[in-house]
Amino acid sequence: MADKPSIVLVHGFWGGAAHWAKVITELHRRGFGSLHAVENPLTSLADDAERTAKMVRQIDGPVVLVGHSYGGAVITEAGDLPNVTGLVYIAAFAPDAGESPGQISQEKPPAAFENLAPDSDGYLWVKQDKFHESFAQDLSEEEALVMAVTQKAPLASTFGDNVTAPAWRSKPTWYQVSAADRMIHPDNERRMATRMQPRRTVELDAGHASLASQPGPVTDLIEEAATASAG
């Protein structure tokens, strides 16, 4: 529908654009016709923010940026474009200037921190046999297995990349906390949400992959942001 803004979905570490599958189908069902999902290289925050910004620049009209996990850092860095009218964080990092996802994680380590394994090429993986319990404990074993096998590992150095100018300081925001998150400590999510003073914070009894386990409430929050953006 012409009166609805475009939605750009940004994935995080250990996944790709397809992690948004259930949210995409739900948004489409609700009448959102302009849907986009970035496939980021996960090579550096600068690379990922630029890839996301390129997609946003191709879109005419208002855009709501939605980031899951590390995707929150990406939309924080890329979200200052003039046609971005709202930022939605789904169990996501929202660093301030000079902060990195790694720094935030080290301050309050998540439960599954020890289940990350670097390889000899500098990429950081979630151990396959620990993926279900770490990333998606509220999904079926089959769904988690597919995620584990198809995971997209980031360069470990990306964890240490700092945000320069956080877009959440100047754009309207919405935040979803996953109370049972084992990849980002829930208290870190609550702290990041509180300091950005979002229009709404929603806390779900969900693991890290809330975009897949609870697509309905996640889509509700995105729709609220889109409605506010449409004015």
Automatic annotation (TrEMBL):
One of its GO terms (molecular function) is catalytic activity. It comes from the Bacteria. Residues 7-219 form the AB hydrolase-1 domain. This is AB hydrolase-1 domain-containing protein. It comes from Streptomyces griseus subsp. griseus (strain JCM 4626 / CBS 651.72 / NBRC 13350 / KCC S-0626 / ISP 5235).
